[in-house]
Design goal:
single chain, alpha/beta, Rossmann fold, 7-stranded parallel beta sheet, 10 helices, 7 strands, globular, binds nicotinamide-adenine-dinucleotide
Length: 268
């Protein structure tokens, strides 16, 4: 018997395998009231996972939660939280702990758009954008990490954007800086968390048909589509499926990656 190989295999199993047969992981989806977040929640509800759904609009979250409970017989918690507010995020996790809910999978997706050009980015706009996207993602990662480390298991996907890799043609640097920051956050956290059996990755969607992209003028949208080799906008389910891959065991050896899902509009 090759003792070295056996010990190495055992170590890998101890560190990486989450062995609770039959138990479905708890999934926390931020920005779940519409767009990719809602779509991801629907896909994971279909697989029978219990869900924590977080966003700004409680009425929409509650309607979605009730639909998913009835359709799939799963537990769904709906919480209205402003994720840029660290105290509110900490309180959310205290409430979850009181209910014995420990998050196994985090989809850090909440965000806003703001299609303005560089000279129009005020200091307030800059702060709001960075606070929601970058600080909000950091807040959520930090809040779930201790529980994941304890279990030696966890999956995190942060939602960046093609704009974070390439920049944006209109010069909305607050959005692109926040999304580029998410790529850095993902890499650093991936390096820190990998030894604890936690995979941290990101996705970088191109333009996708959601409420966020509806804020674009039709002219700007047409110009953007003309630059997409696939010739169309992405669909929320295509983005959700890419995130689902990264949190699946099929991606168990992927760490710190930012997966492009952009119709070929940017390749790196
Ligand atoms: N739609 C696109 O073309 C596109 C492209 C690349 C990346 N993205 C990113 O994908 C993510 C989802 O976007 P979408 O297109 O589904 O948009 P969307 O507007 O449909 O959904 C955004 C969600 O984020 C939530 N949210 C916003 N600010 C929040 C806050 N402070 N606290 C809590 N929740 C908050 C909203 O309530 C909503 O549920 C965003 O991070 C966005 O930047 C979108």
């Amino acid at each position: 018997m090759n003792l070295k190989a056996t010990n190495a295999t055992k170590l890998i199993q101890d560190v990486y395998i989450h062995d609770t047969p039959g138990k479905k992981e708890w999934v926390l989806v931020t920005g779940a009231s519409s767009g990719f977040g809602e779509e991801f929640a629907r896909q994971y509800a279909e697989k029978g996972h219990p869900l924590v759904l977080v966003a700004r609009r409680l009425d929409r979250l509650q309607t979605l939660a009730e639909t998913l409970r009835q359709q799939h017989g799963i537990e769904v918690v709906a919480e209205q939280v402003d994720l840029s507010d660290v105290a509110a995020v900490i309180q959310l996790h205290q409430r979850l702990r009181e209910r014995d809910i420990a998050i196994d999978i985090l989809i850090n997706n909440a965000g806003i758009g703001d299609f303005v050009s560089f000279p129009e980015i005020s200091s307030d706009k800059w702060d709001r954008m960075l606070n929601i996207h970058l600080k909000g993602s950091f807040n959520c990662c930090q809040a779930v990490l201790a529980g994941m480390k304890e279990k030696k298991y966890g999956k995190i996907v942060n939602v960046s954007s093609v704009a974070g890799k390439r920049g944006d043609f209109i010069g909305n640097a607050h959005y692109t800086a926040a999304k580029a920051g998410i790529i850095g956050l993902t890499r650093s956290l991936a390096l820190y968390a990998a030894p604890f059996g936690i995979n941290v990755n990101a996705i970088a969607p191109g333009l996708v048909a959601t409420e966020l992209s509806d804020e674009m003028s039709s002219e700007m949208k047409a110009t953007t589509i003309s630059r997409i080799p696939a010739g169309r906008l992405g669909r929320p389910e295509e983005i959700a499926r890419a995130a689902a891959f990264l949190v699946s065991e099929d991606a168990s050896y992927i760490f710190g990656e930012t997966l492009s899902v952009n119709g070929g509009s940017y390749m790196d």
